[in-house]
């Protein structure tokens, strides 16, 4: 099977828009797709490991307030705020900033990042 240059361009454009890297081996017609890890939402990790997700961290706190088991947790303990990645992994704010930069997701300049001690906040993304 031979690929026309137009079909290769369409595939490359579609994959680029979907935020992926593409490797094409001409002789074997092998396509390897690697998804870039990205931040998908804000999250808070509870002391027992349960993760509450939301658009922003404030949304997570509203959800926590509605769960009887965790109503007092917000007052008693410092909860770990972070983000969920496209690989379904919880990351803290420091690791999240690296993922967001590599994924081209940031909506902020470097001066503001330095002021925030190189930590990601949902306001930087959305």
How does the helix and strand content classify structurally? alpha+beta
Number of domains: 2
- Rounded mean pLDDT score: 77
Oligomer: single chain
- Runs in which pLDDT lies below 50 for 5 or more consecutive residues are none
- Overall morphology: globular
User: What is the count of DSSP helices, taking H or I runs of 4+ residues?
Assistant: 6
> What is the terminal separation in angstroms?
43 Å
Helix-strand pattern: HEEEEHHEEHHH
Largest sheet: 4 strands, antiparallel
Radius of gyration: 20 Å
- Main β-sheet, spatial strand arrangement: 4-3-5-6
Percent strand: 25-35%
Number of strands: 6
Helix content: 25-40%
Q: Which descriptors apply to this entry?
A:
126 residues, alpha+beta, four-stranded antiparallel sheet, 6 helices, 37% helix, 25% strand
What does this structure look like?
- The chain has helices spanning 5-17, 57-65, 73-76, 93-102, 110-115, 122-125; strands spanning 20-25, 30-35, 39-45, 51-54, 80-85, 90-92.
- By secondary structure, the chain is an alpha+beta fold.
- The protein folds into two domains: 5-35, no CATH class; 39-125, no CATH class.
- A four-stranded antiparallel β-sheet has the order 4-3-5-6, covered by helices on one side. Strands 1-2 form a two-stranded antiparallel ribbon.
- Strand 3 and strand 4 (51-54) form a beta hairpin.
- The longest helix is centred in the N-terminal third of the chain and has 13 residues, at 5-17.
- The N and C termini lie far apart (43 Å).
